[in-house]
């Protein structure tokens, strides 16, 4: 059942294995407090084919560790347990509900002389608590986005409903976890904002306001361009996870057929006498189809206070995508979808080409893209703005980075240092082969720069890194 | 119903003795004066001016029936025509003899049709055989012929505003010859022909002077021709044809106003609107030649609004008939005894009243449903500001579905006019600054009309009240504010700080801080010190406001002191010092301020670091690490000594 993927082979037959998911389970110690009832505590267990007693044993162990460590620090329960072969991450998202993820450490398999089994070396220091802790939290956030809280499910249908929901969600979700490519960006869980001039931004505002006014069912709207956020009517935390879903799951799913030439978006729809390229990414894939289904995914937002369940309509024209969120209690049918298509399609098409034009003008103003001398990751905790020149396009399957994993690990280590102290800091690391890594933390911002310069010394690197006070700005001014 | 009367007679008419067998009434269009001449002047002439205050009364000898009587400008010379051959003059200037003198027309056998003053001492005689332009020499009691022109004249029309006289020539009378007068010169403009509807029998004057009027509309001179269609044809009705009369170049037919009815009409021009009174229906039509009808051909206009009668008017019966009883009685409107003069005068000679016709804008608002058209219409009117602002308020208060696009259009229209004014003002200022060196053209300061609705008007009369409303959703309020800001930006008008404040206030009120954050992120709310301070004050409710504020101050680059203060207040002493050093201001900062802040943190090492920094600065600037008495750091020096001991001080370098 182990998912093993060799990373790189060094030496003769030496094999390297990346970190992988061993177990993932959710339990509530209150559900089976008496002896013999331990199985009741377990709400979800992956892999499901593990023998019952082993499940109970593993859950019991976690429970014990959490209980035990709590005596040392009641306010901060244990977050992870390091062992030689694997690492366990604990997370209590709701009272008494625990999610545990067990990750097998990366390892190197060294062949021995004939006949003898190969020696396995576990690289237990290679994985970072911050990264996988964040991944675990993200699992819960994603579950909550589509299913609401555990407590609500319990209220609605007891343990039975909750386990059903967990089963249904995590069965598929865990398959999309790619633990080997998790890095600092998963820790930040940031949002990439689309740089835009004020006037075009105001036009988008105007568009959003108009649509919300004429289709008053719409409660919230979010606007994205090129998979980057421009406007969110949702609160920051909800947007953060919705953004994650859109950019790592929904958009890549739809862009691949586009690239493959099927479902070509270049065939414009005609609404009234206006051509437009708008189409639904959720709900009906073709409005003209008499069999079309008008069912939209439901999401849960503001779960801390108003607890709203919403239809999620994602509508896209060219590179502009808009999310319209409507209370789940509303019935959405063909009529509404046609109305929305007729209203939004032409306007959004126009707006998308406006943005594209403006974006190209800005790019021309700021000069041609030069290959920068350095790579960086920027994150601002205040607005979750994130920018990375290290990461390539994210797809549903993998996120590609352009630097060596070892450098990524250094970034993660620096970040872990920053978390430990409140004050502004700067850390410079000399990595292997002419690489320098500079980490800066200022107020709520973090900046990581990777420099590659032969024979550079500390003073030079420090001098260079001061250039990076250039904080990436989201709104860009257009020169007249 | 009364709300629909968009035309009215003015409240304070000029009253005069009504016309009768013994009292002849004359009206001078140039000075807007009414002359009541009793018994040929022998028993008195009473002249009432446009504002009815300064009336002039005098007597003159009865030398026969008066045909025409007019003062020159500023009432300096009176001209009276009593015979078909000559005009008599009386000096009205002090120190000059009052006795009459007379001038006969120069052309033999000609008949004087009338005369017009073109300045205080220049006069034009129009005879059936041409025009004669004279200068009056009051002290010499004689006239000097400046210029003359021979042409057969049927009748004439004078436009005093532009000093243009229009002569009707040819047999049918439809070829019009304009002359313009200015400072002793007479210039002949190009003649033009009025297209007549049907030529029945030639050799007969068909074009009547009653059907021609001259007026300035939107600063341009137009000849208005009331074209009656014969009833026999299947023509829908009469129309008014406007000919654009230019100083140079041919006169062109430019606009057609469709009346869609027949009968007796009279024309006025009020506030650049052409008003056509229709007697039989007792209503008036209103046309705006700048209003484009989308569905019709170029420059064919339908009335702006449905025809309505002038607002009912009551007059107080005075005079011998009703002594004592002052009860006002309704005045008969559209009476056949009314005379209509350009541009906006209606006279009832039989009742002794002169009114100015006025357009009321309020009723227009309810009659003209299309807000975009309405706004265009209002922006072209003289007293439009308050009406426009009330239309804006009204439009926002109802909050109808789908009204945002309309709101956007209205804002764009307002801001277009606003922007044009700002640009004119700017180029004027620049021209003035450049000095009169190049100045053959005198710079004219642009006039700010009421149609210029600026941000402060919108703020005071519309937006600030609107944002207070409890019955409108905050979503709509914010949408409207953003729409206004969008419109201002679109016209590249700098948005005033108080509008941003309004946006922020509304967002904060409804706890929409993430929205505010996003607006700031995209610089929708432009950077300014007041805005940064406002953000700082929000920090307790929304912590990210602190970073937003600091970033803004940094971008302003004129607020380094403020940044230091903010950082020190947050006890970020090192941060403050690093910042001020990065901008090169660390030689001028107060050591005491930083040491005070460092002491407050109760962090010994921090205090040590800061103290050491300033010791080094002293060393560098003055060659000694000691603080000067002016820096008031004694207290901190003592504390440093107590905490770290004497040996911790930097030793002064002694050579």
From TrEMBL, chain A:
Q: Which residues form the CCZ1/INTU/HSP4 first Longin domain?
A: 22-148
Q: Which InterPro entries match?
A: Ccz1 (IPR013176), CCZ1/INTU/HSP4_longin_1 (IPR043987), CCZ1/INTU/HSP4_longin_3 (IPR043989), CCZ1/INTU_longin_2 (IPR043988)
Q: Which Pfam families match?
A: Intu_longin_1 (PF19031), Intu_longin_2 (PF19032), Intu_longin_3 (PF19033)
What domain of life?
Answer: Eukaryota
Instruction: Give all residue intervals belonging to the CCZ1/INTU second Longin domain.
Output: 218-342
GO cellular component entries = Mon1-Ccz1 complex
Which residue range or ranges hold the CCZ1/INTU/HPS4 third Longin domain? Answer: 370-465
Q: Which GO terms describe its biological process?
A: vesicle-mediated transport
- Which family does the record claim for this protein? Belongs to the CCZ1 family.
PANTHER family of this UniProt entry? VACUOLAR FUSION PROTEIN CCZ1 HOMOLOG-RELATED
Official protein name in the record: CCZ1 homolog, vacuolar protein trafficking and biogenesis associated
Organism classification: Eukaryota, Metazoa, Chordata, Craniata, Vertebrata
Its gene? CCZ1
UniProtKB/TrEMBL annotation, chain B:
Organism domain of life: Eukaryota
Q: Which residues form the Mic1 domain?
A: 381-629
Q: Which GO terms describe its biological process?
A: regulation of autophagy
Q: Where is the signal peptide?
A: none
Locate the Regulator of MON1-CCZ1 complex N-terminal domain: which residues?
25-143
Q: Which GO terms describe its cellular component?
A: late endosome membrane; lysosomal membrane; Mon1-Ccz1 complex
| UniProt cross-references to Pfam families, sorted A to Z | RMC1_C, RMC1_N
Its protein name is: Regulator of MON1-CCZ1
Upper lineage: Eukaryota, Metazoa, Chordata, Craniata, Vertebrata
């Amino acid at each position: 059942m182990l998912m093993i993927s060799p990373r790189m082979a060094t030496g003769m037959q030496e094999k390297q294995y990346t970190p992988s998911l061993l177990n993932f389970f959710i339990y509530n110690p209150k559900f089976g407090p008496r002896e013999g009832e331990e199985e009741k505590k377990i709400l979800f267990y992956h892999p499901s084919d593990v023998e019952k007693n082993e499940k109970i044993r593993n859950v019991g162990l976690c429970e014990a560790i959490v209980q035990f460590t709590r005596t040392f620090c009641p306010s901060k329960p244990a977050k992870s347990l390091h062992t030689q072969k694997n690492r366990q991450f604990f997370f209590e998202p709701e009272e008494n509900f625990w999610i545990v993820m067990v990750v097998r450490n990366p390892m190197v398999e060294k062949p021995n002389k004939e006949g003898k089994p190969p020696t396995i070396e576990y690289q237990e220091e290679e994985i970072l608590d911050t990264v996988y802790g964040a991944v675990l939290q993200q699992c819960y956030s994603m579950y909550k986005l589509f299913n609401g809280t555990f407590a609500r499910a319990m209220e609605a249908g007891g343990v039975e409903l909750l386990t059903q929901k967990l089963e249904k969600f995590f069965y598929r979700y865990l398959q999309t976890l790619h633990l080997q490519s998790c890095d600092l960006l998963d820790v930040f869980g940031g949002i990439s904002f689309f740089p835009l001039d004020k006037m075009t931004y105001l036009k988008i505002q105007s568009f959003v306001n108009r649509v919300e006014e004429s289709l008053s069912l719409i409660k919230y709207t979010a606007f994205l361009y090129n998979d980057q956020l421009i406007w969110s009517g949702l609160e920051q935390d909800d947007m953060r996870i919705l953004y994650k879903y859109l950019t790592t799951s929904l958009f890549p799913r739809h862009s691949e057929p586009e690239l493959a030439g099927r479902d070509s978006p270049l065939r414009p729809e005609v609404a009234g006498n206006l051509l437009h390229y708008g189409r639904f990414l959720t709900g009906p894939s073709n409005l003209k189809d008499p069999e079309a289904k008008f069912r939209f995914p439901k999401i849960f937002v503001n779960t801390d206070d108003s607890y709203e369940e919403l239809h999620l309509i994602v509508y896209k024209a060219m590179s502009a995508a808009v999310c319209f969120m409507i209370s789940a209690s509303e019935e959405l049918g063909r009529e509404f979808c046609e109305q929305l298509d007729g209203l939004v399609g032409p306007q959004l098409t126009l707006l998308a080409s406006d943005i594209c034009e403006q974006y190209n003008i800005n790019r021309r103003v700021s000069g041609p893209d030069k290959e920068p001398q350095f790579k960086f990751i920027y994150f601002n905790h205040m607005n979750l703005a994130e920018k990375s020149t290290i990461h390539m396009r994210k797809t549903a399957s993998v996120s590609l980075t352009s630097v060596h994993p070892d450098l990524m690990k250094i970034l993660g280590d620096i970040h872990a240092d920053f978390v430990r102290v409140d004050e502004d800091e700067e850390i410079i690391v000399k990595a292997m082969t002419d690489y320098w890594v500079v980490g800066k933390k200022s107020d709520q911002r973090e900046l990581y720069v990777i420099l590659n310069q032969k024979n550079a010394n500390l003073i030079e690197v420090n001098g260079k890194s001061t250039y990076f006070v250039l904080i990436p700005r989201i709104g860009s001014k257009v020169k007249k | 119903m009364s709300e629909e009367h968009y035309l009215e007679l003015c409240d304070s008419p000029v009253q005069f003795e009504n016309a009768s067998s013994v009292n002849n009434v004359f009206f001078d269009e140039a000075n807007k004066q009414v002359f009541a001449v009793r018994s040929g002047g022998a028993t008195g002439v009473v002249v009432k001016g446009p504002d009815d205050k300064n009336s002039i009364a005098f007597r003159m000898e009865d030398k026969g029936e008066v045909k025409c009587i007019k003062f020159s400008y500023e009432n300096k010379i009176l001209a009276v025509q009593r015979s078909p051959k000559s005009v008599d003059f009386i000096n009205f200037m002090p120190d000059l003899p009052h006795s009459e003198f007379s001038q006969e027309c120069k052309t033999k056998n000609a008949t004087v049709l009338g005369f017009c003053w073109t300045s205080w001492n220049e006069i034009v005689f129009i005879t059936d055989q041409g025009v004669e332009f004279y200068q009056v020499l009051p002290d010499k009691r004689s006239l000097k012929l400046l210029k003359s022109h021979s042409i057969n004249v049927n009748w004439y029309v004078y436009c005093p505003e532009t000093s243009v006289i229009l002569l009707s020539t040819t047999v049918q009378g439809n070829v019009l010859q304009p002359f313009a007068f200015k400072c002793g010169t007479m210039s002949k403009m190009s003649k033009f022909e009025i297209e007549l509807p049907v030529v029945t029998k030639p050799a007969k004057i068909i074009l009547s002077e009653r059907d021609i009027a001259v007026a300035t509309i939107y600063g341009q001179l137009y000849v208005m021709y009331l074209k009656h269609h014969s009833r026999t044809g299947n023509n829908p009705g009469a129309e008014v044809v406007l000919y654009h009369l230019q100083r140079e170049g041919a006169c062109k037919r430019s606009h057609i106003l469709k009346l869609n009815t027949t009968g007796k009409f009279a024309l006025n021009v009020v506030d650049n609107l052409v008003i056509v009174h229709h007697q039989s229906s007792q209503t008036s039509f209103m046309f705006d030649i700048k209003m484009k009808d989308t569905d019709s051909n170029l420059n064919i206009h339908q009335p702006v609004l449905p025809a309505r009668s002038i607002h009912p008017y009551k007059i107080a019966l005075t005079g011998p008939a009703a002594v004592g009883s002052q009860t006002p009685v309704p005045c008969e409107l559209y009476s056949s005894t009314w005379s209509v003069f350009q541009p906006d005068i209606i006279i009832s000679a039989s009742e002794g009243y002169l009114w100015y016709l006025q357009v009321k804008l309020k009723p227009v608002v309810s009659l003209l449903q299309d807000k975009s058209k309405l706004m265009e219409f209002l922006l072209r009117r003289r007293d439009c500001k308050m009406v426009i602002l009330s239309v804006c308020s009204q439009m926002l208060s109802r909050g109808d579905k789908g009204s945002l696009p309309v709101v956007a259009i209205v804002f764009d229209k307002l801001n277009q006019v606003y922007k044009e004014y700002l640009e004119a003002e700017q180029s004027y200022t620049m021209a003035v600054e450049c000095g009169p060196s190049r100045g053959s053209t005198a710079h004219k300061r642009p006039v700010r009309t009421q149609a210029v609705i600026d941000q402060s008007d919108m703020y005071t009369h519309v937006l600030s009240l609107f944002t207070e409303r409890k019955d409108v959703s905050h979503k709509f309020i914010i949408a409207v504010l953003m729409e206004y800001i969008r419109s201002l930006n679109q016209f590249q008008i700098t948005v005033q700080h108080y509008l941003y404040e309004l946006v922020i206030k509304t967002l904060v009120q409804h706890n929409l801080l993430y929205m505010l954050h996003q607006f700031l992120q995209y610089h929708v709310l432009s950077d300014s010190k007041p805005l940064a301070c406002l953000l700082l004050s929000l920090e307790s409710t929304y912590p990210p406001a602190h970073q937003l504020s600091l970033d803004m101050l940094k971008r302003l680059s004129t607020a380094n002191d403020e940044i230091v203060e903010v950082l020190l207040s947050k006890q970020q002493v090192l941060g403050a010092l690093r910042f001020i050093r990065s901008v090169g201001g660390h030689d001028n900062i107060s050591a005491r301020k930083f040491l005070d802040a460092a002491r407050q943190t109760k962090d010994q090492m921090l205090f040590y670091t800061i103290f050491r920094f300033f010791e080094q600065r002293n060393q560098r600037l003055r060659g000694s690490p000691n603080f000067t008495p002016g820096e008031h750091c004694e207290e901190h020096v003592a504390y440093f000594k107590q905490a770290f001991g004497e040996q911790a001080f930097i030793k002064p370098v002694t050579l």
